[in-house]
Amino acid sequence: MAAVQWRSRGRNYEAELQRCHPEVALVEFGDYHPLKPIMVTDTKTRRGARKGSTSSSSSSSSSVPPDPLSSMLDGTDPLSMFAAASANVVFQDLGRKRREKEEEAVGPDFEPWSSKRGEILARFTTTEKLSIVTAVVSVGKAPSPGSSAVSEKVRTRLEELDDLEEGSQRELLNLSQQDYANRIEELNQSLKEAWASDQKVKALKIVIQCSKLLSDTSVIQFYPSKFVLITDILDTFGRLVYDRIWTMCSDPRPLPDSFTVEDVNDTAKETCLNWFFKIASIRELLPRLYVEAAILKCNRFLNKSGIQETLPRLTAMIRGIGDPLVAAYARAYLCRVGMEVAPHLKDSLNRNFFDLLGTFRQISGESVRNQLVLQRVEVPEYLTLYSPAISWILQCIAYRAPEPLLTEMMERCKKLGNNALLLNSVMRAFRPEFVAIRATDFIGMIKDCDEAGFPKHLLFGSLGRSLACADPPESERLTILNEAWKVVTKVRSPQDYINCAEIWVEFTCRHFTKREVNTVLADIIKHMTPDRAFEDAYPQLQSVIRKILTYFHDFSVLFSMERFLPFLDMFQKDSVRVEVCRSIMEVFIKHQVELTRDPVILNAMLHICKTMHDSVNALTLEDEKRSLALLIIGFIRMVSFGRDFEQQLSFCVEARATFCNLEPVLVQLIHTVNQLAMETRRVMGGNHSRKTAAFVRACAAYSFITIPSLSSIFSRLSLYLLSGQVALANQCLSQADAFLKAAVSILPEVPRSISVEGKLRSSESFLLDFINNFLATLLVVPDHPEHGVLYLVRGLLNMVQDYTWEDNSDAKVRVYISALPLLAAMSQETYLYSIPKVDSNETLYGGDPKFLSEINKLCETLIGQILDHLKALGRDEKVAAGSRLIRTSGLTRRQGAVAFSLFGVLLAHGDLRNNKLSQLAVNLWNLSHKHGYCETRISVRTLESIKHQAQQPNMTHLSDTVQRLTLQSRT
Amino acid sequence: MSVTLDIRLKRANKVYHEGEAVTGVIVLVCKEPLQHHGISLSMEGLVNLQLSSKSVGVFEAFYNSVKPIQLISSNIEVAKAGKIPGGKTEIPFEFPLQTKGNKVLYETYHGVFVNIQYTLRCDMKRSLLAKDLSRNCEFIVHCQPQKAKVAPTPVNFTITPDTLQNIRERSALPKFLIRGHLDATNCVISQPLTGELVVENSDVPIKSIELQLVRVETCGCAEGYARDATEIQNIQIAEGDICHGLSIPIYMVFPRLFTCPTLETTNFKVEFEVNIVIVLHDDHLITENFPLKLCRV
């Protein structure tokens, strides 16, 4: 084919722009316009609408049609309707439970047992070996349906029970704590299995066995945990029995939640009664007590006052337990069940507590002492074993209790000689407000306590916990802190010390200034540094930091605490250190609103960020890196030196040196520097002085040497381009050239596929996007005087040609096609856009015919290449068709698409007055329609648009062309 | 071909009183129609007496057991020989619980040497090739409530080394003082035995305090009578070294079937006692005995 002669169409951008603007017509008030604001004249809030959803229905003034969006939501909007409906369903489902709750009058403010459970399990552990005595639970004979004689049944069952009590016992020795827990869990499982397979006697046996374990106080340190594990089983059992009887009554229809005795049928009553008789005949005290407590709720089936009568009886029964610890926990269990089943029966709770006080002297009794000696347990440690039980009992009593009752309780405790153990539980269980008001009293009581029994730091710990939630009277605060800290600081063991100090930090932060907090920190450092005690106290130290961060959001204050950074230095384990830094950074990002240049903050923050950065190594996870980088970026964005640009730049230099391992941070730094350059330009109003010019060049240099250290090719490319644009805007021509050249030179490095969010994807589309963007920039880049005309464009096109594109892809040709508009734009007399104070090629060459012909030649080459490609596609198609390959349509479709886009370019940018060009356009049109892959709608619209253009002056020639473009009807 | 035969009483707790009617249904479940030679139902109340080998020698005990005393007996034919359709068939029945003559219906009691038991027995006769079917069902008889009012008779007790009888070395005994009371010794059988106990002081720690319920059964026969005391149940009320000076509740539910109102007839007697057993840590066993009189109101 003879070379095509390219002539760019002359453009008058201004005129075109004018034409594109439709006439501006003001919208009259009342006229309809889709974007006109809707006048809300009436707003009512609907019930059930969720927060954040459109909850107001709006009715507009009559002349304005209703907003289609809000009219959709007229009535209840569908989402909240669903939500309301499902809430109803849920409500019905939960109805039973909820109503029970209401009846029980235990609100959500009652800390449930479940939350205590984990705490106890974690706190009371042992490394000693445990033993468990269990009967080998014989594979229970399923009750033979044949013997309906009551006596036989009862007899066999009782025999089985005896069997369990006397014979076939086995002692498992040397269990570790974990084994023990597992064993108990096994029992729990076998209880459920036995129940499911209708072996009720076996189930009862298991429960009796388990509760028997509670009378064993060997390895006493583990007792509270054991209690938790075993009462879990008891709870399960209680639930099973209750549910079973419940279902027995719900034959025609389920029993209402507020059922009365009359609603229960005889069979259910008889079954229930049977359980109670059976349990009443359990030989040992402790199992009888626990199992009856477990099924306390079942009394509801028998009579109204059952629970009311049983609770005091069980409470009195506990008096028969000799071991004070076992008794205390039995009381705790009874209170727990009582709270669950009948929280309104406060009397027995109080009774329990008074009984407990009554037996308090036993704790220091002889048999206890002997036991402790035997087990080599210290008294203070022994006493702490009580605290979960007593705290729980007191919590139950204190729940919504009137003030006088609490005062009375306190008085009683006082009477017992300020028993430290009790005092501790009182402080933990009673409302923090109650304790806070009397904080001074409590301190006095704590002081009067006997030092030997219960360590005072625990008492102060409990007091501190209350004071952290409620405020004591203002005038007493300082005295309280002084008194408390006097004791805390004297605690010898670092572990005890930090446990207590950690609690008081909150009080200090809450009510005092940095001076006091600083003192506290200094004290902590003093205590924790010797022998590297901090190594064992990281969780507590972390919590100290957390508490300080909750109350101090002003970082200049925070970092001006002398001891804060030394405190951070105590975190020497890498993972913890990073964790702490991270939490500080998070608070910083969240609460630092204003940009800062405060050297104190900057120094400290740089230090913290550096710590985070330095934790990155080869093994760090991608996610971890990303989140660290985000935090550091957050910091960098908060740094501003105002008009002191040079300092800002030197900060960036420093930051680059510090954070060189985190790419996102480097990217951010480059952006910051580029922004700095643009800011300088703005300040100078576009006219750089000698000094600022040097500065922006320095900025460019910064970017230029930073970019190559990035590994992601696309960030490099886009940053080169961006920095080039910034350099150009700042009249740094040679720098801009260097950036763009660098971008072109790394193009061949772009891999064919890149990983996007962990998946390999073809890089082609990204590359095309970039190149198009690049081309748009090239319009304003003036040619380098030493290199040839259109040096960069040529360079880019060469790179494109040499790049190994994917097979079967038109990407290369697409680049060529998109280069044509650029070239056409370059040949205009005035360019579409330009950069102030930068002379583009339009002024450099001034429309020199040589320059234009260079451009035209280049265009012709490109078109030649494109046409060759089209031909090649056609040829391949023939070959494929010849060899009877079926998948040929792909080629023709591609051919059509490429031809059509070239047609588009010709139409928009080529001078179609030239016969050859217009002939080419017509050919391309026909080629693209040859195989019928063209979207008819687009073709029709194109034709319409051409016709429309043809009406413009200077464009009349188009009408001839149109006549030659035929529309292929799809048949 | 499977068939199940069952007797279902109307009352869930199976408790009946004299003069009432024992009602219920016989339930037959079979897949196919069933041929039979008649179904009969009988009610019987028996007192079984047995002599213990302790009081009369092994051989006498073996073959000299006393003849059972029949309290009530009746028999009805439920269905004549014929066919029962497949599926579930329920045949209702009703027996009046009435004695003949001046016999008394004693309360159901399961003991060791005395057993008072009431049963329903359903028999289904079948052809030679198939086995006869039968089914037993025990029901429980409670005697009529006692008319006279029961006046509670509280009993106070004090146990010290000096109050004890039947000991070998009084000097080896540690010192202790245990006080307490039972709210009543003539108890209503449906109410628990209650009371209180206080360990005022004790030189040796206490290991355990238990309530032992004992039945005393007496059988009269030609050669005289045999009287035996056996344990019914043992309930622990205190475990370990309990707090001194603090009252501990005495509380025991009388087990059903194994207890009945105290019974005295010409041929046999059933009486109950409770022992408070205190076990000291050096395994000294101190027992205080209280005879009980049980009644039903």
TrEMBL record, chain A:
Keywords: Endosome, Protein transport, Transport
Superkingdom as given in the UniProt entry: Eukaryota
Subcellular location: Endosome
Region (Disordered), start-end ranges: 40-75
CC annotations in GO: endosome
GO biological process: endocytic recycling; protein transport
Biased composition (Low complexity): 53-64
UniProt entry tagged with the keyword Protein transport: yes
InterPro entries: VPS35L (IPR029705)
Family: Belongs to the VPS35L family.
Protein name according to UniProt: VPS35 endosomal protein-sorting factor-like
Origin organism lineage: Eukaryota, Metazoa, Chordata, Craniata, Vertebrata
TrEMBL record, chain B:
GO CC field: endosome
Signal peptide positions on this chain: none
Major localization listed first in the record, in broad terms: other
SUPFAM superfamilies: E set domains
Compartment(s) of residence: Endosome
Source taxon at top rank: Eukaryota
GO biological process terms held by the UniProt record: intracellular protein transport; nervous system development
Pfam families found in the cross-reference section: Vps26
This protein's record includes keyword Transcription regulation: no
Keywords recorded for this protein, A-Z: Endosome
Gene3D superfamilies: 2.60.40.640
Subunit field text: Component of the commander complex that is essential for endosomal recycling of transmembrane cargos; the commander complex is composed of the CCC subcomplex and the retriever subcomplex. Component of the heterotrimeric retriever complex consisting of VPS26C, VPS29 and VPS35L; within the complex interacts with VPS35L. Interacts with SNX17 (via C-terminus); the interaction is direct and associates SNX17 with the retriever complex. Interacts with SNX31; the interaction is direct.
Known role: Component of the commander complex that is essential for endosomal recycling of transmembrane cargos; the commander complex is composed of the CCC subcomplex and the retriever subcomplex. Component of the retriever complex, which is a heterotrimeric complex related to retromer cargo-selective complex (CSC) and essential for retromer-independent retrieval and recycling of numerous cargos such as integrin alpha-5/beta-1 (ITGA5:ITGB1). The recruitment of the retriever complex to the endosomal membrane involves CCC and WASH complexes.
Family (UniProt): Belongs to the VPS26 family.
PANTHER family named in the record: VACUOLAR PROTEIN SORTING 26 RELATED
Protein name: Vacuolar protein sorting-associated protein 26C
Organism: Lates japonicus (Japanese lates)
Upper lineage: Eukaryota, Metazoa, Chordata, Craniata, Vertebrata
